[in-house]
Write a structure and sequence with these properties.
Length: 89
């Protein structure tokens, strides 16, 4: 008697337009949420300045794209990079 609790899941088809639309929407929402979080972080730390009078926390481009695992599969996202000064006033 085989008593197995393993369930086989169906993989979505590779060229399913609906699946691609959902993935693109999820990718955009995730990117938007990350951008909002970075903007809030920068705003929260905007009073910090360096000895030169410049902002201590600034945007500094993007890190390389990386996959994030979701229920829809892996999504490639770019994470904003921050420059943070170590010597403050």
């Amino acid at each position: 008697m085989t008593n197995s609790n393993v369930i086989t899941l169906n993989k979505p088809e590779q060229n399913d337009p609906l699946q691609e639309l959902l993935k693109e929407g999820a990718r955009k929402m995730l990117a938007s949420a990350i951008e909002a979080e970075v903007a809030a972080f920068i705003k929260q730390h905007s009073p910090l300045i360096t000895e030169d009078g410049k902002a201590a926390v600034v945007r500094n481009g993007y890190l390389p794209k990386r996959p994030i695992q979701t229920g829809l599969g892996d999504l490639e996202v770019q994470i904003p990079k921050l420059g943070i000064a170590l010597e403050l006033v």
